[in-house]
Structure prediction request, 53 residues.
Amino acid sequence: MILNKEQLLAVTGGAITASFINALARGITTLLELGRGIGSAIRRISSGKMCSL
Prediction:
């Protein structure tokens, strides 16, 4: 099927789906948790209060 210029300009779509929003929220949550973990590790190393095994 070949569309002409007017038909191509009238094409709509690409709605944001619930799965896209969920994936975006999970990505943001993962980045925040990663930042918290790295920040905690830096704070423990700089204060010298590391857990010994």
In short: The helical segments are 5-9, 18-47. The mean pLDDT is 90. DSSP finds two helices and no strands in the chain. The two ends are 67 Å apart (CA to CA).
